[in-house]
Amino acid sequence: MKRLLILGAGTGGTIMANKMRKLLARDEWEITIVDQHKTHYYQPGFLFIPFGMYTRPDVVKPKTSFLPLGVEVIFQEIDRIDGANNHVMLKDGISLRYDYLIIATGTRVVPEETPGLKGPLWHKNIFDFYTIEGATALADFFKTWPGGELVLNIADVPIKCPVAPLEFVMFADAFFVERGVRSKVNISYATPMSGAFTKPRASKVLGALLEEKNINIIPDFYLEKVDNDRKMLVSYDDREIPFDCLVTVPVHKGDAMIGRSGLGDEMDFAKAHKHTLQSDFFPNIFVIGDAGNFPTSKAGSVVHFQADVLTENLMCAIENRPFTESFDGHSNCYIETGFGKGALIDFNYDTEPLPGSFPFPGIGPFGLLKETRMNHYGKLLFRWIYWHILLKGKEMPIDSKMTMAGKKM
Questions:
Q1: Please, which residues have CB within 8 angstroms of residue 110's CB and are 6 or more apart in sequence?
Q2: Which of 46, 88, 191, 224 has CA atoms 20 to 30 A from the CA of 323?
Q3: 289 phi, psi to nearest 5 deg
Q4: pTM greater than 0.85
Q5: Angstrom distance (rounded) from CA 354 to CA 347
Q6: Assigned CATH class of 2-106+255-318
Q7: Prior bond to 365 cis, omega within 30?
Q8: Same fold, 2-106+255-318 and 111-251
Q9: What is the CATH number of domain 111-251?
Q10: Could you tell me if 224 and 246 are in contact, meaning their C-beta atoms sit under 8 angstroms apart?
């Protein structure tokens, strides 16, 4: 009996378990998935929690609800991968053999990497919204906060869902306007990037949106430390930003076991080919989603598009055929802009976001690089799609490769 082993039962691992169980004969292949956590979080929903739009039950479900019959599930922490001998060692001492391995361990936030960030003010005046604990603590804080200096800071890149910090400050603008206290809240967006976003055209459009909403952009701000006593952000070039409420996007890293296994970069992201998704070190190891060092967004749409490519390429490897699929870096992201509107971007490794309509030329119904109510509804609809279609590996009407149809140069 051959074995496919999947590390991580988040979005990527769950999708691949569903897809591969349909393709691999049960009398020939065992599929096992390993994860130390039993709870699945709809992470895009964390953004809505601080503003009272979602609560914890809206974003939490058991991981086993989305894994198919015929897949063995092991809830245990992973110690390391022994790629040379095709084994994975778990923390409890158990060793799992594999013929093919998929690394889908995602990324993690490490606020302790920044001096002072996780200090006395942590979850009192300093919050993250990339964890359920941070998002719910911030929701409680906002219920009684009278106003002051609200600063969102991105400590470093890459991060999960690169547009989420932009969404947060635009949501905050709308939230405080609707509460009648916007004049008492000064909102700043401090980023290590040179603009609002990594792609120049999108950065220009999104930066203009922030300016319209009177949100102060502080570019090229490389955070060195947080001074809790003075409530001050300090950069490496000694610039300072005062805050009354700091919303941080902490440093992100891959799973530490990737580093222990010698399969990653300096941030513990697994090194893999950006088109084939095959590990740089072993031909029977593949990587998907946030776990990899791919030069594209760490976003749910990327995992979805990569899953189609990985499914085909993994079958090619199993059947000893040349790879027939190539991932082009395709990513698309709905961007909440507040007041019931949203924007949408669609891009890949080679093409930056362009204006137009999506997914159908001239029809849409979604507009690219512009604010529309339909884009907002698309964002809200995606939660249902995520739970009922995406995680289960079902087909969606969006090609994994980016198309220029509907886009305007």
A1: 250, 251, 252, 253
A2: 88
A3: 75, -150
A4: yes
A5: 8
A6: alpha beta
A7: yes
A8: yes
A9: 3.50.50.60
A10: no
Q: In which residue are the tokens 């604010």 written?
A: 371
Domain residues of the chain, as ranges? 2-106+255-318, 111-251, 334-390
The Cα 298–Cα 355 span in angstroms is 22
126, 117 contact by CB (below 8 A): yes
**Geometric angle at alpha carbon 97, from 93 and 99, rounded to 5°:** 155
CA dihedral for 254, 256, 262, 268, sign (positive or negative): positive
Give the burial class of 143: count Cβ atoms within 10 A of its Cβ; 0-12 exposed, 13-18 middle, 19 or more buried.
exposed
Rounded distance between C-alpha atoms, residue 274 and residue 328, angstroms? 8
**Please, which residues bridge with residue 29 across strands?**
2
Judge whether 301 and 161 are in contact, CB under 8 Å. no
Sequential pLDDT tens for the chain (409 residues): 999 999 999 999 999 999 999 999 999 999 999 999 999 999 999 999 999 999 999 999 999 999 999 999 999 999 999 999 999 999 999 999 999 999 999 999 999 999 999 999 999 999 999 999 999 999 999 999 999 999 999 999 999 999 999 999 999 999 999 999 999 999 999 999 987 776 677 778 888 899 999 999 999 999 999 999 999 999 999 999 999 999 999 999 999 999 999 999 999 999 999 999 999 999 999 999 999 999 999 999 999 999 999 999 999 999 999 999 999 999 999 999 999 999 999 999 999 999 999 988 888 899 999 999 999 999 999 999 999 999 999 988 888 999 998 888 7
Structure tokens belonging to residue 47: 């953004």
Which residue matches tokens 């309509």? 357
Q: Where are the beta strands (DSSP E) in 250-385?
A: 252-254, 285-287, 331-338, 341-347, 356-360, 364-368
Q: Angle at the Cα of 250 (from 337 to 211), degrees rounded to 5?
A: 30
Structure-block tokens of residue 251: 């440093």
